[in-house]
Amino acid sequence: MEEKHASEALVPLFRFERLLNQDQGGRRITLLGLIEDKPALLTAERAAFPSDSRSLDSFHRSLSDVKNLGTNDIYHWYLASVGPSEISVPDLKLNLISPCTEKHIKKYSPQGLRMVTETPEIYQNHVRPYIVKQREEGRLDWVFNIIEGRKEQKDIIFRDPGQDGAKDEAFLLAPDLNWDRKTLTSLHLLALVERRDIWSLRDLKKCHIVWLKHMREKVLEATVQKYPEIEKDQLKLYMHYQPTFYHLHIHVVHIQLEPTSTQAIGKAFSLENLISQLERLSGDSDAGMADVSLTYTLGESHDLWTEVFQPLKEGRKG
Fold it and tell me: Which residues on neighbouring strands pair with residue 117, listed in sequence order?
C-alpha cells in the first residue's frame, strides 16, 4: 500500500518541459519533463468509454462546455468536456446526426466485411441503378448547402473557379466534419467538386486527367498555405469506393493520421493511382473507370451486399 501511495505521489511532481509526441488523432500524448530534477516521460491516453447501460444512459448529462463548431442540415459537430472542467481544453469531439436514418444506423453499427469484385457489367446493371436511387432520395442537401454558399462558408479554405474559369471544373476545399480543426497530425479535409454529374470515381474518364491533376496541385498548394507547418509530401489524397455520399469528393489527410478502415485497401483509392490508371487505359477520351473491374470491401449490412452481391454469390440474381 505504501508503494502504491508513493507511486501516485510522483505524478503531481512532474514538471513539463516539452511535448515529445502526439498520436492516435491527438488522443495520446507523450510529455518530457522532470521529477525531482531527473528526466521523466509521461504518456497520457484517453480511457475507453464505458459500455454498461447505466453509464451510457447518463453519459450525455455528464457533458459540459459544449461548443458548436458547425451545423449543416441534419449534421452538427461540437467540442465538449466530460464533467466540470478546470482547464479550457475540451475532452471530446462530438458529432450529432439528428434526425438520423436507418442507413446511418447501419453505417455506425458493427458488421462483418466482405471483399467483392464489381465488373463493368455488375456496375451498369446493378450498382449504377442503386446509385441513381440514392441520389433521387435527396440526401445531398448538406453538400449543396456548402457548394451554393448557404452553410459553412466561413470554414472554406479555398475555392477554385476552374481552369480559365471553366465552371464544370470548379471545386472547393473545406474541413471534414470529423476533424477537430486543430490537431494537424489528424488533419482531414474534403475537396468537393461543384458539378453534379460526376457521382463517384466510376464516372471519371480519360478526358478528366488534366482536371484531376489540376485539382491535386491546387489542393496541395492551398493546404500547405493554410497550414504552413505541413509540407506537400505529408498529405494523402484519395477517394472512397463505395463512398458515403454520391457526389465526387477527394479526401485530404495528414500522412500520420491514425489509419482506420476508411483508409484501408479496398476502401480508399489513391488519387495519384487513379490518375495513373486512367492514363494507362486504352481507348479514346471517353474511356474511363466504368470500363474496369474494381475489388473493394462492403459491410454485410450495406444494401449493395444484401441486394446485389450476396444474391449474385448465391445465384439468386442474374
Answer: 295
pLDDT at residue number 52: 87
State the pLDDT at residue 1: 63
Report which secondary-structure segment, H or E, holds 60.
none
Q: With the CA atoms of 266, 271, 273 and 274 taken in that order, what torsion angle do they form, in degrees rounded to the nearest 10?
A: 90
3 state SS of 20:
strand
d(CA 227, CA 232): 10
Record the cell numbers describing residue 265, joined without a space.
Answer: 485497401
pTM, 2 dp: 0.83
Q: Which percentage of the chain shows pLDDT scores above 70?
A: 95
Is 247 catalytic? The answer is: no
Instruction: Classify 107 in phi/psi space as left (phi over 0), alpha (psi -120 to 50) or beta.
Output: alpha
Span 200-248, pLDDT tens digits: 999 999 999 999 999 999 999 999 999 999 999 999 999 999 999 999 9
Burial of 127 (0-12, 13-18, 19+ CB in 10 A): buried
pLDDT at 92 over 60: yes
Residue of 240, 249, 251, 254 marked active site: 249
Distance of CA 217 to the CA centre of its chain: 20
Between helices 209-226 and 271-280, what is the axis angle to 10°? 160
Taking the C-alpha atoms of residue 120 and residue 118, their distance in angstroms, rounded to an integer, is: 7
Cα 130 to Cα 116: distance, rounded to the nearest angstrom: 16
